[in-house]
Structures are given as C-alpha cells and as structure tokens.
Amino acid sequence: MVASAAAGCSDGAGAAPKITTTARAGIAPTPPAKGAYFGAWVPPEVRGAATKTPSSGSASGSASGSASGTPSGTATGTSPGKDADKPGMAPVAAFERDMGRQLDIVQSYRGWKSDFPSGLDTSVLDSNRYLLLTWAGADTKEIVEGKYDALIRARAKAIKATGKPVFLRWSRDMDRSSVKDRVHSPADFIAAWKRLRQIFTAEKVDNVAWVWCPTARGFGASNAGAFYPGDDQVDWICADAPPGADYEYRDMSESLKLFMQWARGRHKPIMIAEFGVPKSYGQRRAEWLRAATKTLEDPQVKAVVYFDSDEQAEDARDKRRAYSVTGDTHAVSALRELATTPYFNPRNLPVTSGG
Question: What pTM value is reported for the model?
C-alpha cells in the first residue's frame, strides 16, 4: 500500500511534487499532510558528559503495543518532561522543557551488531513520540553474500514485535570516503539495501519507514545520488547537514542547496536527520537558527531532527563540531521558536509558555 500526502505551502517555498512512500498508512510512519515533524538527538547520558554515538564509519555502538501510523497515546494534555523517569528519557525531557513542547521524533543510534530496542527505544515507543532508529552499516558485500541474514532477520523480528511505527535509517552517510572500505561502491550499497528490505518483507515487517540518508555535502564533491536504491525501495529521502567545520560561517540554505535540487526530482518526503548550529558561531547562533527555520519551511520537508550534542568535537576547544544549545540562552530561544512554529508542530502538541 502506498501512502501519499499533498504538499503544503509555506512562505517563500515553491510547490513540491506529490509525495508518495512505500510505507503502509496507519501502520508505519508517514509524512504529515502539512508541516514537518520536529525531533532531536539528545545523548542518553547526563548532558555534557555523553558517550560517543557510533560514527558513520563504525559497525558497532550502543516495546509493545498495537500497530498504528501515529505514536501511541494522545497529544492533548501531554506536558514536556512527563516521561523523565523512564529509561533514557531524562535528557530528552530536559531538552523538551527547553523547547517548550514534546518532541515528535527521538533519535537513537545503534551499532550493526547491537540488540534493539534499547531502554531508550522502548521508552520512546511506549510514548506518543516516533522512534528514529539510526542503525550502523556493515560490509555491503558480506551482507549480499548472506553472512548477516540471521542478524538482519532477528532485527526485523524485534522491530515487528514492538508493534509501533519506526523510522529506520540504515547505514547513514554511506557516501563518505571514510567508509568506502565497507560500502565499496554505490552498486554494492544498493544491493545490500535491497537484501535488507527483502528480509524485512519476508518477515512481514510493515511498521517500518525506510530512511535513505547520505550527507548533504555528498551532492557536491561526490555523487551521493548514485547510492539511491530507487523510489520503490525508499520511503523518506534524507540528508545530514551540519554547516561543516571548514567554514567560518555557513547558512543552512547553502549546506542543503545541492541536496534539495536533487530531491526535487523525487516524489518523496524529506527528512533532515542531523542539523545543528556550531558553538563557534557565537552570538550569530540565534541568527543562523532563525534563517534555518525559513529554509526548512519547505513543502517537501516533512521532518527535521536537531543534533543537540557536542560529542563530535575533538576536544573542549573544538567549537566547530559542538552543537548543543544547552546554556546558550539566545540559541535555546531561537531553536524553541522553530520548534513551536505551527509548521513544525503538525500534531498540535501542547506548547508551554516561557523558555
């Protein structure tokens, strides 16, 4: 069954194509008819002392209910922070208090051989938030040869058993040169992607939306589009879009420009799964976020996920790869403005006053 959503309109944005996915409406996550979901990655440890997430080059790292196309529970009366006592949710709840609303999407990173769902995953699935499960990749040739069939089947069964809609973002940033030794080539990646989907289909896993996610930068220097498995294999097209540590200052519109041009040729909803404003931008962080809000109010963009973490920084002095807004009053305020803009609150979740 194919779900579709008519693209909405926003100030300054052109018309988007009719959006279709292979996801089953009412079972797997499908895009909102208007606007975009707002989510975040918030490290599961005490904020400011988080462990590293698996890198795009790593193959290792760190529920229940009836199936539904929307997360369980209702939006009405849900206040930010109410799930702070559940496993892994305290940092998420703290971030939600800063944002003045509950998140639509909570991201979780899992290694290739890591079991899931984790404690955080289960907490998210038991709430009315969507889980964005970012699953690391492995050697594509070994996947195609069948070496990991049993592992893939076990993960498929685990996701099916949750009975909840899950975004699955497998082997993100596959276009990076740093992962060429395991990705090998676009053809090898596509063959591995199709084998995963084939096994999930055999296990009758209907509650997954497949998110294909290279880097936004890969549409410039390299040919990220060559890794695209095809419209019949992908539910959401995605990009990771940090400004880049080699820039003193760069608007999100510039980071996303080439990716968005490519995406216009696809009848798919867009997710920006990792974006953040570097601490090196100082007093201009709020300005960057307000400009990003306008860029993301695009009728084809249906989900945005903030990377609220400093874990990619090489050390405490590396501000170009540090994206957490915690403690930065102006940045928190600007990101809160984005989060509480009606466009990024399509489920009309309660918004608290103050900040």
Answer: 0.89
